[in-house]
Amino acid sequence: MRWLLTFIGFNALLLVAVLLALWAFDGFAGEGLSAQGWFAMGLGIAFTSGIAVALMALVFYSARKDYDEDAYRVGRPDR
Q1: d(CA 18, CA 27)
Q2: CA 20 distance to own-chain centroid
Q3: Cα pseudo-dihedral 50, 55, 58, 62, rounded to 10
Q4: For residue 49, which of 21, 8, 16 has the smallest C-alpha distance?
Q5: What's the gap between Cα 10 and its chain centre?
């Protein structure tokens, strides 16, 4: 559990650093989005990333519990 908190912390710091660098170099100057647009885009990115992480977690969980092998063997005779 501690590694997960460390991973989340480092990713949050990386995101803040990238956003600060873009802000410092006027990376957001020509976009023409309102505050609501930026907020909506941020929510969309967070939601999409969350779905991707959840689906990858399900893939790893399924592989560790051998659910993939059970699905592969359905309908096949034992050799």
Answers
A1: 10
A2: 21
A3: -160
A4: 8
A5: 14
Question: pLDDT truncated to tens, each residue of the chain (79 aa)?
Answer: 788 889 889 989 998 998 888 778 777 666 677 888 888 988 998 999 999 999 999 888 887 887 777 666 666 666 5
Task: Tell me how crowded residue 58 is: count the other CB atoms within 10 A of its CB.
Answer: 11
Q: What HEC string does the chain produce?
A: CHHHHHHHHHHHHHHHHHHHHHHHCCCCCCCCCCHHHHHHHHHHHHHHHHHHHHHHHHHHHHHHCCHHHHHHHCCCCCC
Spatial CA neighbour of 56 closest among 48, 17, 39, 1: 48
